[in-house]
Design a protein that fits this description.
Elements lengths: L4 E5 L4 H12 L3 E8 L7 H11 L4 E6 L37 H16 L3 E3 L15 H14 L1 H5 L4 E3 L7 H10 L24 H13 L11
Parallel strand pairs: 1-2, 1-4, 2-3, 4-5
Helix pairs in contact: 1-6, 6-7
Length: 230
Amino acid sequence: MPLPRAVVLLSGGLDSATTLAIARAEGFETHAISFRYGQRHAVELEFALRVARALGAARHVIAEIDLRVFGGSALTADLAVPKHARAEEIGGGIPVTYVPARNTIFLSFALAFAETTGANDIYIGVNALDYSGYPDCRPEYLEAFERMAKLATRAGVEGPGVSLHAPLLRMGKAEIIRRGLELGVDFSLTRSCYDPTLDGASCGHCDSCLLRRRGFAQAGIPDPIPYAPR
């Protein structure tokens, strides 16, 4: 019997790599989708390709969309990426690295990919604990998108619709790292930095780097990727 198919959003970071491994472990043939959206850290796509190959994705597509036409984010416009010395210094509001409507755009593409691929499941690696406060990482947002997907697609009208899975939603970063290692994720193939150096090293001080580094420290495991000197 062929395996059921699932579409997995894959950025090249540790969360999405672990999500891809979870989807595979749960018995799905995985079809990964990544995005070149004008992000300053487009180097992440090189690592998304490596992760997809290493974890046996049946297919990996990179969708080209340019969110720089809107700007409004330090990831897609000429705005400084905030840097801190420690993860505890990350602020409580929505940071300037928030890309307006990004997960809604990405999930809409994933929904179209799922319909054309014959997948009834979409996996996304959002997290509502160790994250930067983005509004489109909250459980109520994901529940609302899943309801919308059942109304807006042929799969929802004529069939069971698409189920949205966020297996990392209530996991801390250290727990995510441990789970990924259990499933054979090679975290040296991942990158999380919002502002990498020209040679691809992670900056070590953006929100994403700090949360990653704290997660590895709490897990008691060395982070296997290069960071720029302080």
